[in-house]
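Researcher: Let's do a round of design. I'm pasting the structure tokens now; please hold your answer until I've finished.
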């Protein structure tokens, strides 16, 4: 076997299946020997690269992407590993000095290793080529290169993410979007890295490259306090709006499990004897019959019948929506949120005039209807909930979302967890009493004729 990156007269790559996973085989053939495959010159195989980098575990490789990426490997080295590359984007990234120095240290180490350059070039190629549906599966399992990078190993995925900056800037320029939106959207990069540092004893790193994919590929924008991303509604509810009025009815999906209070049962507790009952939904010609949901996502036992001559279905699975995401940052005031909502409606009407968005939707622990009973009516979280028609979503009762945002990670012992805020005390008391926190959803409809937001409550400014 030739040494890594040593020249060979001809390298052929073909794709085989050994019954467990795809494999690459290197064949050295005579010039006159026919072979149907992908021709690549003077490149190593991925297993060789990973072995030289000290990676012992199995790593899933997209072999077609490996061949394609290595055939385009730059002769002069990887440009985004140069210090000047990062410095050219400092005004957009606004990184602290110690993080910049950490990046420079990682760049030096990666530049000094031919194998590392091959691997990072492959990773940036995959990151650029993947869709949102597959980036989590493909990019979230890359090895950190601990043997090579040492304490800076968790920064490897951050380097890969930064490789997308030229494409991101070009996309904004093409669409005529201002640098202010670009900077605000990129602010999540530092937020995610600071979150990693705070949870790992001061070490810089990045563990959410699958989330940042949407930022770097122009699929998500931060507009004021909130972030927005076009999407497709996927929840099992049917939303109806009365003809010529703003009254809305929401019917639960068929077979969804609820407890005696009408709250959705966590997926991991449906068989635990918590008094489960299941909603039913039937759609007949001219009539929809099912269990209605209150605006706080509580499912009612009494079924309703809606005449489709009087009620229009305005939101169901498959509808185009604008997803609302809540980054860490300033206080979540009603004023700042509505500024973002209104901005987003106009922004996407200009950016995607051919798309008919039916609603703004948000799915978060912040919309847990139990918080309404745990907090003051004047709390920002409750005010945020007031703007949405809420609906239940599938969730697991011990999910970490609320711990990450409220406690900066799951406390080792809830009995000794900090109780220094009203929210922390309310959550801890609720959990101590045997409750669980819910992941819930909410929507605000968009008028199909005018495009205006239809607020849930009176007094909302739209």
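Researcher: That's everything. Go ahead.
Model: Designed sequence:
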């Amino acid at each position: 076997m030739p040494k890594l990156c040593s020249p060979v007269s001809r390298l052929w790559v073909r794709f085989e299946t050994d019954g467990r996973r795809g494999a690459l085989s290197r064949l050295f053939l005579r010039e006159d020997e026919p072979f149907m495959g992908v021709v690549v010159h003077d490149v190593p195989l991925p297993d060789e690269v990973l072995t030289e980098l000290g990676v012992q575990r199995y790593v899933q490789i997209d072999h077609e992407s490996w061949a394609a990426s290595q055939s385009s490997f730059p002769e002069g080295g990887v440009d985004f590993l140069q210090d000047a590359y990062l410095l050219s984007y400092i005004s957009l990234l606004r990184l602290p000095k110690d993080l910049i120095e950490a990046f420079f240290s990682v760049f030096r180490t990666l530049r000094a290793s031919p194998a590392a350059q091959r691997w990072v070039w492959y990773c940036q190629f995959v990151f650029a080529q993947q869709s949102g549906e597959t980036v989590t599966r493909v990019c979230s399992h890359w090895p950190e290169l601990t043997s090579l990078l040492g304490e800076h190993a968790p920064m490897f995925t951050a380097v890969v993410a930064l490789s997308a900056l030229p494409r991101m800037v070009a996309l904004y320029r093409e669409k005529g979007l201002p640098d202010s939106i670009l900077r605000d959207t990129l602010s999540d990069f530092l937020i995610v890295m600071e979150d990693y540092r705070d949870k790992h004893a001061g070490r810089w790193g990045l563990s959410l490259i699958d989330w940042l994919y949407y930022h770097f590929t122009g699929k998500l924008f931060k507009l004021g306090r909130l972030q927005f991303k076009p999407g497709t509604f996927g929840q099992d509810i049917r939303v109806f709006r009365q003809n010529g009025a703003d009254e809305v009815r929401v019917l639960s999906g068929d077979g969804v499990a609820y407890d005696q209070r009408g709250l959705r049962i966590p997926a991991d507790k449906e068989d635990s004897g918590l008094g489960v009952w299941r909603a039913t939904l039937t759609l007949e010609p001219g009539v929809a019959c099912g269990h209605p949901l209150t605006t706080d996502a509580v499912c009612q036992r009494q079924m309703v019948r809606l005449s489709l001559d009087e009620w229009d279905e305005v939101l169901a699975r498959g509808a185009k929506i604008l997803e609302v995401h809540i980054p860490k940052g300033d206080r979540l005031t009603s004023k700042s949120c509505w500024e973002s909502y209104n901005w987003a409606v106009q922004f996407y009407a200009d950016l995607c005039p051919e798309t008919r968005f039916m609603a703004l939707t948000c799915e978060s622990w912040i919309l847990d209807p139990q918080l309404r009973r745990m907090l003051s009516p004047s709390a920002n979280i409750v005010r945020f909930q007031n703007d949405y028609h809420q609906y239940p979503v599938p969730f697991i009762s011990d999910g970490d979302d609320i711990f990450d945002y409220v406690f900066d990670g799951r406390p080792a012992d809830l009995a000794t967890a900090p109780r220094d805020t009203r929210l922390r005390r309310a959550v801890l008391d609720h959990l101590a009493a045997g409750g669980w926190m819910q992941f819930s959803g909410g929507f605000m409809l968009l008028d199909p004729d005018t495009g205006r937001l239809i607020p849930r409550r009176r007094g909302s400014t739209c």
